[in-house]
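Record type: monomer structure entry
Structure origin: computed from sequence
Chain ID: A
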Amino acid sequence: MSSAEQAIQHLDRLGTIILDDVGDGPAPADFAAAACAARDAVATLAVPALTQLSGLVAGVADSLVSGATEWNPSLGGTLMAAIDDIRHLAGRAGQFTDEDSEHLAHRASELQPHVKAQSGERRVESAAPSVARAPENKVEQALSTLHSPLSTPVDAKIVPISDLFYADAGPHIVSGGMPKEAAGRSDLLGRGIDALDNLTMKPIAKQVTFGAIEVVPVETLLYRGRAALERAAAIREQIKSSGGAAAPNVLEEMYDLIGLALKD
């Protein structure tokens, strides 16, 4: 059996203990023993991020045994999520990526608050096998660089920023000219811009006029006099033939037609 298969076997046993919980949490002693066995098996894979996370799981188990941490369903879900991630990545430890490392770092941040050592007890990091840990990805390297003090050579000369600018009306902006191969494209672009400008001054087609526009009064578009009464009568017949109540907008139209008829 390979190291990965052994680690997965121990992780499955640990997950079973957590899933057998009926509300009060797993038996602390059994949980701690299984967590330590899983941690040691994962450490043989020599993947620092996996070793760290499995060590945190064992640390939570130690905290439960000591009474420094209390069990709750949310903690059980967090532990199962971490165990599932370790189990999945243990199967392909040889293809471990920076994205995997960042994901496990997020899981570790979820477990870390639950690892609480009482006075005189060891922290969880000391319980895990000693593995030389280097920055696992570019993110960790960047963070370690930010937190490390900057070193300045003893003989380094600090130049005021004001000395980097001209005190008088210096050149400030220096033009390097235009490459020969770009000159043709620049000329083409210039001619295109000039042509667009000419369109505003010299339209392509002449303006077309349609003569005087006749304004029609809106009153001429409405029913008036007898036409309005005939239309109102037609609506009344439609209401009677429908056999039901007329819609409010239909009645409103009929009343408006009567009003228009009365104006003449």
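Annotation 1: Residues 3-138 form a domain with the Four Helix Bundle (Hemerythrin (Met), subunit A) fold (CATH 1.20.120).
Annotation 2: The radius of gyration is 42 Å.
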